[in-house]
Amino acid sequence: RLDQERREREERERREELARRERERLEREAAEQRAREEAAAARIQARRDAENEMSKFAVRLEGSLEVSMPPAGTLLPGPMREEANVRLTARTSSLMGGDGQVCEQDFHLPADMASAAPSVVASAARSGMDNVASALQLQKMGGQGPLMLMEPPEMDNWMRCAVVRATLKGLAALDVPNAASVSRVARTFDCRTESGVLPADHPLSYQQVFAQMLDRIVEDPSS
Prior knowledge:
Blueprint: H1 2-53, E1 55-68, E2 86-94, E3 98-99, E4 103-107, H2 110-141, H3 152-173, E5 185-197, H4 206-219
Antiparallel strand pairs: 1-2, 1-5, 2-3, 2-4
């Protein structure tokens, strides 16, 4: 009987120990989850606070796309000298930079046009944004405009984002014609791209983050 009581006591203690460990595990996981949620909330709040301190600028790029038939007898460059059956024309403009370069290319088939469309539309968007960048540089020379607050990498990022977003908007608006019948189709699109600049003394500003990176490299070149 004593052995039976001892075994029951040991089994009870074993179960209690398992239950205690399970409670501790659950409490530990709950604490870790709370810590993750609090850290995520802190990051979101920090971003909101930073956005409230930003100086914000935006550029709007307007574009047009035209699918048409090239003049009869138009031949494509290259040794094959295939006849051009479809033409894609893309152009962009902005209030600040004016008209960009007209980007036009002929193709043998609509499928060829669809494959090359991203390159054509991106070239038109890039031309429009190059004009915007030039206008911004002129403003800076006069002591005005967003570039008085932006560092060159921040401007480059803004311009590149604007090109990508305008390209995607243009491709979404593009109609690829049926191979059997190509008729003139014109489409327009516009894209507004915003950029924010933090004060130079803000801990998340480009200047501060870049300075921290340089300090880290100096302290530990292998990092």
